[in-house]
């Protein structure tokens, strides 16, 4: 089985699906001849031609809007927004048009499209190359929100997203494009090749949307995470020697509530980890759901580890990023009661 | 104050002042358009459809007009339509006006919550549609009901949507007049202005990608050209040479804001085409023949891979913005009557009479027929209910079509809503 990093896995997902479905069209800024600033679309224009893979003007609103028109025509846009931090000019089209089309036309027009966008921090990206805006999309009825954390999942989830009849916002944690990141910025980065989830099958397979993965089984605590924070959380519980169950949500909407409930009912404690700022972040929704549905099983308040309620700073990267130190504090707190 | 403060401003320089455009007339003023330059019918040249975009630049400040003061069709843009087509367009336009009046009244009677007329603008959508093929696609705004009427869309279906009744194919989810019909090439109307303009470009790009022969028409008002979506539509249309007609209906008003607030004081809306390298035309929107000819020209251009065209239809919004608007608060009540381009229905009617193909008697008969047709549709539609009776049954349907399948969290909310309303 080939070994791939997340970029190669995503690239492979494009190729698998574009070979199967000639209605798939890929466009975005710098994604054509150049192959994307992160190389995710490398080689696609050469294989599939300029009619199906092409560069777009620097206009996120225009990229999403023309994708809406293409989906209305009946072809399938698989588009890229270069950084999630730059998705906002396309927000009106995503929220008002893409998300609501099936509903407002009672199913007459649908928007089966995938909007890929690299997100998250830990890379000295400063304010506009580090954001995690997932809660701005999980709040919008009609959108599905997906976040992979390994090459295997990245390919399988992207294929599932392309095949899904609903519009998907596909957040790619760029910190872990090349290798998993446990939050220890002072240690050398390990490439994906040393991680078992870099074994990526050739050809077509899917990882179902709406299904979480229990990436570490445990009995004392449930940790809910997605994206880079899955690796940060795993490392932290191992370092603290806690018998925690770590759940990689993979899909934020629809959410795998069964897996979450089952785990919290077993462990009685819940810690939620996200990179995004705290207030009104997706962790707040998760916390509310756990509290509403598992209240009588809880032995301690649900704890959240998040970014601070500030814009993402440059020089203070490691004081901002919810890394091992903050994980340790939170783990101690949630285990203390 | 620190010693690092910047140096004080230089003295004796003139004060800057913000310019805030004002319409020429406000309530109480006597509207006088005698200073408005109205080029003579037939005076605008008609370039070949293969002309370079740059050759159309003079046409972005001119006004393509076909019907002259004596109601004759003159000049190079005369589409030389047969009387049958002219009568069909007249019939469609009259139907739209009668329909608008009935539905406006229905809203006033409390049978629905909202309505928007297109009075004075009927020629634009009707003639545009008659100039296109049945399979071509429209991305309309809320003021192109003429597209549906010109495609012989069942009036009862339009009304069912307006009443959100049991016949409403949008299941009561959409505000009245936000029609949608795929089979009629009429894209779902959105309340968010401008969004559909670049979407039309995307549809046209898809048609080009798939080697189709259909083209697309996007619509926007003068006010909404200020939205960023206008700019992205123009950019993408130009970059990809998309087979699209981008229509700007300049009816002079965006609710209470006159077109100057959208930028019309300094340049025509058609002139925007110039900077993007797109062909541009400025057309008398109250002249059905000019509208037809311009759309036909742009459609031939698009269909032969010669690229997009921006057309400004110059017209006047003769009535309030919507049933929620009272225009007497911001403009003279008799401004529509003073408008120099007249009434599109009267002008087409006079042309047909001048041709010897029409008379007052037949026109009265046509109006009566349209009225009877609209009333019959209304009767049929109201059998299926009016708005105050709706929203009580089938509450569960509110939760469908958010996604292809109802996810668990929405299913739970559906149960709760059904419980609340049992």
UniProtKB/TrEMBL annotation, chain A:
Gene3D superfamilies: 3.40.50.920, 3.40.50.970
SMART domains linked to this entry: Transket_pyr
Protein origin, superkingdom: Bacteria
Annotated keywords: Oxidoreductase
Cofactor: thiamine diphosphate
Enzyme Commission identifier(s): 1.2.4.4
Domain Transketolase-like pyrimidine-binding residue range list: 4-179
Record protein name field: 3-methyl-2-oxobutanoate dehydrogenase (2-methylpropanoyl-transferring)
Organism, scientific name: Sphingomonas sediminicola
Lineage: Bacteria, Pseudomonadati, Pseudomonadota, Alphaproteobacteria, Sphingomonadales
From TrEMBL, chain B:
Cofactor entry: thiamine diphosphate
2-oxoisovalerate dehydrogenase E1 alpha subunit N-terminal domain: residues covered: 14-53
Enzyme Commission numbers on file: 1.2.4.4
Keywords: Oxidoreductase, Thiamine pyrophosphate
Highest taxon listed in the record's lineage: Bacteria
Domain Dehydrogenase E1 component: 92-384
Catalyses which reaction(s): N(6)-[(R)-lipoyl]-L-lysyl-[protein] + 3-methyl-2-oxobutanoate + H(+) = N(6)-[(R)-S(8)-2-methylpropanoyldihydrolipoyl]-L-lysyl-[protein] + CO2
Region (Disordered): 1-54
Gene3D superfamilies: 3.40.50.970
UniProt xrefs under SUPFAM superfamilies: Thiamin diphosphate-binding fold (THDP-binding)
Record-linked InterPro entries: Alpha-ketoacid_DH_E1_comp, DH_E1, Oxoisoval_DH_suAlpha_N_dom, THDP-binding
Pfam families: E1_dh, OxoDH_E1alpha_N
Entry function: The branched-chain alpha-keto dehydrogenase complex catalyzes the overall conversion of alpha-keto acids to acyl-CoA and CO(2). It contains multiple copies of three enzymatic components: branched-chain alpha-keto acid decarboxylase (E1), lipoamide acyltransferase (E2) and lipoamide dehydrogenase (E3).
Family stated for the protein in its record: Belongs to the BCKDHA family.
Protein name, as recorded: 2-oxoisovalerate dehydrogenase subunit alpha
Species the sequence originates in: Sphingomonas sediminicola
